[in-house]
Amino acid sequence: MVDIRKRETRSGGILQTWCTRARKLLRSQLFRFYLVGGASAGVYLLLFLILRVYCASQIANVLALLLSAIANTAVNRRFTFGIRGTAGIIRQYLQGLVVFALGLVVTGGALLVLHSRMPEPSRTLEVSVLIAANVIATIVRFLGLRWVFSDEHVPRE
């Protein structure tokens, strides 16, 4: 058996406080991405519902997703991945737009399937389908943005 004192020394201590663990969690990329993603998803859905009053679902989806993706990329660039300055910013936004396109394929495809099965779905059903599609798109977006903002792709000033 391993002596507890040795295990405490190696692992940072069993007595690590809840606050220390919470700080580590807040510093993690995935948690920050989750916070930004949650806010972006809320903005996206709100924009979709507003735009859906004035245009077709696919157009509302493209516009809402594009606007929220631009803001999402800016916030993730700084808050989630800790990138400051303008070095490589144009390339990063262009790559972010590729990641946006992948999300658009997922959400647009989900709406296409929904409307092919049900020509006049309720807004509640449209939003439910978009929420499910956005869960998948968010995973794709995280992996894509993590690649875009990785150390090997980000020029340092």
Descriptive account of the structure:
The chain is mainly alpha-helical and 157 residues long. Helices cover 78% and strands 0% of the residues. It has 6 helices and no strands. Helix 3 packs antiparallel against helix 4, helix 4 runs antiparallel to helix 5 and helix 5 packs antiparallel against helix 6. The longest helix is centred in the middle third of the chain and has 29 residues. The protein is globular. The N terminus is likely disordered.
Write the layout of secondary structure elements.
Layout (H helix, E strand, L loop, with lengths): L3 H8 L6 H10 L1 H26 L2 H24 L8 H29 L5 H26 L9
> In angstroms, what is the radius of gyration?
20 Å
Share of β-strand residues: under 5%
End-to-end Cα distance, whole Å, is: 50 Å
SS content category: mainly alpha
SSE succession: HHHHHH
* Low-pLDDT segments: 1-10
Can you give the mean pLDDT? 80
Described by strand count, sense and barrel closure, the largest sheet is: none
Helices, by number, come to 6
Q: What is the total tally of β strands? A: 0
Helix content: over 70%
Shape: globular
